């Protein structure tokens, strides 16, 4: 009996202790759970904030990537444009170098052209003196004008050369076609008003305005000689033909060159 009572008392004491202990544990566990819940909430908030930062960094990286691609594209375009401009600059430099070489060559050419022009004028003067005296005074004045032109600093070398070539062209024209013009012939100590006529450089004749006398230039003897009266009418017709006063026809004229050839 006594043993049973003792065991009952011990059991009751253990139950009481456990009850007290359970109450204490329950009391001690409640703040820990709240703390865990608070920490979990804070952790969730931190995760949300971290995700937001990650999303923000991702957007920033996408923007930076877009900007990088735009910069690369602009760089490629600028590089292509710079290559194009460089090609233009290289071509311009080559053109400038070519022009400079031409300019340098012009000075050398001028050094050779100027003496050539003087020689051309001298040759022209000599030709006029030896040729049949077609427009003699006019041609001599032209040669003198060319000599004067060469000493003028306000006239370019190209213009001087052009006028010399033009004088040569005029000399060539004297040797073509039928040409008549009026002038004065000195013969036998007299000045006679005449119609000059030349058939190219084949024949050079003069006829008095009264059509009673005619002369033929002998270029070998460098003098005028009287021609037979039988040539007066043909010469008159030839003069009219040159002035388009009558139709072209065959006429008989004296020619020294034909006699010399025989």
Automatic annotation (TrEMBL):
Pfam families: DUF3450 (PF11932)
Keywords, sorted A to Z: Coiled coil, Signal
Coiled-coil residue windows: 82-109
Signal peptide: 1-28
Protein's recorded name: DUF3450 domain-containing protein
